[in-house]
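// run 5 | inverse folding | seed 20
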């Protein structure tokens, strides 16, 4: 592609359906799933945090749903717990939808 060339988009990208959950439901689901995977692995927050190079307090806040992890951090955690990215995101999305339905 030539330098300074413009890219043309044929049609705008439009979501087919609105997102079925809010960001609050997503954060809560991420925290619930990460905490359940860690407990099932029988490791402490300190062990996970040390191996991933993050603060234990940050991991604790993620597990409580107070923070939303960035994509890199979320993928790193999913893979650390031995899940595929598709599986991890699918489980989290289903849990977020569950919280959304319960809130109605």
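// decoded
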């Amino acid at each position: 592609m030539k330098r300074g060339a413009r890219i043309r988009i044929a049609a705008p990208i439009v979501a087919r359906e609105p997102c079925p959950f809010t960001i609050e439901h997503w954060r809560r689901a991420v925290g619930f799933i990460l905490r359940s995977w860690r407990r099932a692995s029988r490791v402490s927050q300190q062990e996970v945090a040390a191996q991933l190079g993050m603060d234990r307090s940050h991991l604790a806040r993620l597990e409580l749903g107070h923070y939303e992890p960035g994509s890199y951090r979320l993928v790193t955690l999913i893979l650390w717990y031995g899940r595929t990215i598709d599986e991890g995101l699918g489980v989290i999305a289903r849990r977020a939808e569950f919280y959304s339905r319960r809130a109605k």
